[in-house]
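Predict the 3D structure for this chain.
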Amino acid sequence: MRKKLFDDLPKSLKLNSGTWLHIFPDSGEGYRLYDPLEGKEMGRILFDETGNWIYDGDSLGVEEQEEAAGAISGYQKEMDELFNSLKR
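Done. Predicted structure below.
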């Protein structure tokens, strides 16, 4: 998967759980996740060539993993728009 975040990384993301993450591209096909408030690594999100992802770590719950992967891949905006359209 082509790197989808802007070149001026790290990008910050606040998860619905309240956890803040800095997202750094790593040397492979993934992204390192770092909690700047706690000062610790939170794992990695890895993508394959078809855009499927897997979480490599043990610090984030399933919903947090999905939220981080969605924000990285750009699907989060689409999901938010779909959710908002269903609420109308």
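The chain has two helices and five strands.
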